């Protein structure tokens, strides 16, 4: 791997910024100061230091983002900012696991682990996803049996059984295992109600860090990564 790519992937800046680090002599490889940013290195065996600090290479990346409203869950878009813009990362191998609507906030896992993403999104894996749902009018309990049994949202589509917990008159927690197009909004429409605010709180074993404001992110902890991989099996 090229040195500048390695440093950028390690989160030390854009390609332009890390080239400047190398040019200023702040980078050492195996104890030797280097000045060529296009130098080829073995990211598994070579020891790379910046300002005397060892830089570890992460081949797999797992990021928890509190997705804000107004950005799309995609790697690129011609009209809107994407969730990757929130990261300001120079890595080009990251992608969101699944999608949240542009006006939906909350937990989104961003990774480069395709196998994990596939398993988390597979209908056969029955991965729970819990949403905080704010409603236009008070929740009507008469619709709860339909939610628990699997509500019909169109002539052709019936949802799998879901779990509902009422928090306030107009706020519920809804746990589903599918990812149909606008599913939560369509479920509430079928209950003669409309969604005014939607936030995803959990996905499988991953729970949104309450300390993250919309648009903020952090790397997943080792415990969270282990739980995700166990869930995959």
How would you describe the overall organization of this protein?
The chain has 233 residues and is of the alpha+beta class. The protein has 7 helices and 13 strands. It has helices spanning 3-9, 15-23, 83-87, 114-121, 144-149, 183-190, 222-232; strands at residues 27-29, 32-33, 48-50, 53-55, 62-67, 95-96, 105-111, 129-135, 163-168, 171-176, 195-203, 206-207, 217-219. The strands form 2 sheets. Strands 5, 6, 7, 8, 9, 10, 11, 12 and 13 form a 9-stranded mixed beta sheet that branches. Strands 2-1-3-4 form a 4-stranded antiparallel beta sheet, with no helix packed on it. β9 (163-168) and β10 form a beta hairpin. The model has no long low-confidence stretch (mean pLDDT 92).
Task: Give a nutshell description of this structure.
The chain is of the alpha+beta class and 233 residues long. The protein is built from seven helices and 13 strands.
Derived from helix and strand composition plus strand pairing, the structural class reads: alpha+beta
Main beta-sheet annotation = 9 strands, mixed
Strand content: 25-35%
Order of helices and strands: HHEEEEEHEEHEHEEHEEEH
**Helix content bin:** 10-25%
- The value of Rg in angstroms is 22 Å
| Low-pLDDT segments, ≥5 res | none
Tell me the total number of β-strands.
13
Sequence-ordered SSE layout with sheet pairings:
Layout: H1 3-9, H2 15-23, E1 27-29, E2 32-33, E3 48-50, E4 53-55, E5 62-67, H3 83-87, E6 95-96, E7 105-111, H4 114-121, E8 129-135, H5 144-149, E9 163-168, E10 171-176, H6 183-190, E11 195-203, E12 206-207, E13 217-219, H7 222-232
Parallel strand pairs: 7-11
Antiparallel strand pairs: 1-2, 1-3, 3-4, 5-7, 5-13, 6-7, 8-10, 8-11, 9-10, 11-12
